[in-house]
Amino acid sequence: MRYQISGKQIDIGNALQTHVKTELGEVVQKYAERPTDANVIFSKSAHEYACEATVHLSTGLTASAKAKETEIYAAFDSCCAKMEKQLRRYKRRLKDHHKDRVEPVELFGASSYILASAEGAQDPEPESLQPIIVAEMETNIPSLSVGEAVMQMELAGAPVLVFRNEGKDGVNVVYRREDGNIGWIDP
């Protein structure tokens, strides 16, 4: 498994990198078959350290976890524990998902835009109806079944997931509703 361990505005030492590789490697090997790479980012905000970990699995699914603590090692350990809990919860489904698929999840390219918010604007009336684009990026849209999309959304900790429905060849959306249930949009 490839590791990318970095820090935002802080230096990450060799001891922490070794700790991350051994602990995260044990957790991921225990619950997932053939992980491909892991991305771990440390940052500091005031007195707290934050750790954000993302693991890409060979099946095409992605698991992520975040944690904040006053110590950097404690932040990673909390993040690793959250990752382990997610993977343990979905272990059977991850293995079943892998058996049904002969090839990894197919990804399609798409554009992703970040629009400027209206907060803090002095003028309540916009000059035009065209929003201001702050950033433009490329993103991938996976080709999944509805069940796999719900699992991917929960593993990633995302509130919404756009995916291409394998059964109908159309773009669908799953999202977490305010009442805690999962919503599915199938146009």
UniProtKB/TrEMBL annotation:
Keywords: Cytoplasm, Translation regulation. GO terms for biological process: negative regulation of translational elongation. InterPro entries: HPF/YfiA_ribosome-assoc, HPF_long/plastid, RHF-like, RHF/RaiA, Ribosom_S30AE_C, Ribosom_S30AE_C_sf. It holds the Pfam family Ribosomal_S30AE. HAMAP family: HPF. Interacts with 100S ribosomes. This is Ribosome hibernation promoting factor. It comes from Ascidiaceihabitans donghaensis. The lineage of its organism: Bacteria, Pseudomonadati, Pseudomonadota, Alphaproteobacteria, Rhodobacterales. The gene is yvyD.
